[in-house]
Amino acid sequence: MANSKKVLFQKRRLRVRNKLRAVNAGRVRLSVHRSNKTISAQLIDDVKGVTLAAASSAEKALGVAGKCNIEAATKVGAAIAERAKKAGVAEAYFDRGGFLFHGRVKALADAAREGGLKI
């Protein structure tokens, strides 16, 4: 029986996360989720099990509500970098989940780097 796209995505997501946890113990995780309508990012402290900061293209304050393009991803990346500074986070490891590192996901990561977050 062939695996469905969802099963393959879950396997890829867990594989990426487990490799990053082994290498970057103790660092905060910048987790990205991309859907057809929004893109969001969270800074997660896995040791404490809490979310330190979050940003999404669904927020009206960012001015890109209802969009999920590279422009929206760039604004979300800049917002998460700014909120990371407020939370006292200087560096994090980038958890792309099961998504490929190009397009909107890459734009978010680049904007976070430009905003001062070390990934």
UniProtKB/TrEMBL annotation:
Q: Which CDD domains match?
A: Ribosomal_L18_L5e (cd00432)
| HAMAP family assigned to the protein according to its UniProt record, in alphabetical order | Ribosomal_uL18_B
Entry keyword annotation includes Phosphoprotein = no
The record's keywords, sorted A to Z, are: Ribonucleoprotein, Ribosomal protein, RNA-binding, rRNA-binding
NCBIfam families, alphabetically?
Answer: L18_bact (TIGR00060)
Protein name listed in UniProt: Large ribosomal subunit protein uL18
- Please indicate which superkingdom the organism of origin belongs to: Bacteria
- Species name for this entry? Thalassococcus arenae
Q: Which residues cross the membrane?
A: none
- A Pfam match is Ribosomal_L18p
| InterPro entries xref list | Ribosomal_L18 (IPR057268), Ribosomal_uL18_bac-type (IPR004389), Ribosomal_uL18_bac/plant/anim (IPR005484)
What does this gene product do? This is one of the proteins that bind and probably mediate the attachment of the 5S RNA into the large ribosomal subunit, where it forms part of the central protuberance.
Concerning its family, UniProt says: Belongs to the universal ribosomal protein uL18 family.
**Self-association and partners:** Part of the 50S ribosomal subunit; part of the 5S rRNA/L5/L18/L25 subcomplex. Contacts the 5S and 23S rRNAs.
